[in-house]
């Protein structure tokens, strides 16, 4: 059954390839949704898919790519919107 999670990641997460790496990781995990930078310096992620894949993404988001320094991660379960793919939003 498809589930959805909404994440906010803080720290040094912009300008370090975080969105690109998150997009690739989500696609590898067969998730749909999106990732975008926020004006306050955080990254926002909406991901939908199987519970195990979402758990793997959540674990990965705790550290992100090697160029990032994650200082905070918040997540909440949300209602799926049935996105067809995973993409970066500029």
From TrEMBL:
Cited SUPFAM superfamilies: Acylphosphatase/BLUF domain-like (SSF54975)
GO molecular function: acylphosphatase activity
Coiled coil: none
Keyword annotations: Hydrolase
Domain Acylphosphatase-like, first and last residues per copy: 4-90
EC number: 3.6.1.7
Catalytic activity: an acyl phosphate + H2O = a carboxylate + phosphate + H(+)
Active site positions: 19, 37
Gene3D superfamilies the record matches: 3.30.70.100
Annotated InterPro entries: Acylphosphatase (IPR020456), Acylphosphatase-like_dom (IPR001792), Acylphosphatase-like_dom_sf (IPR036046), Acylphosphatase_CS (IPR017968)
Family of this protein: Belongs to the acylphosphatase family.
Name the record gives this protein: Acylphosphatase
């Amino acid at each position: 059954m498809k589930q959805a999670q909404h994440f906010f990641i803080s720290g040094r997460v912009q300008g370090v390839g975080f969105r690109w790496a998150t997009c690739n990781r989500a696609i590898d995990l067969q998730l749909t949704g999106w990732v975008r930078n926020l004006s306050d310096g955080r990254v926002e992620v909406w991901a939908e898919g199987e519970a195990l894949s979402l758990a793997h993404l959540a674990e990965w988001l705790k550290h992100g790519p090697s160029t990032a320094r994650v200082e905070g991660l918040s997540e909440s379960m949300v209602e799926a919107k049935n996105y067809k793919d995973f993409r970066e939003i500029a």
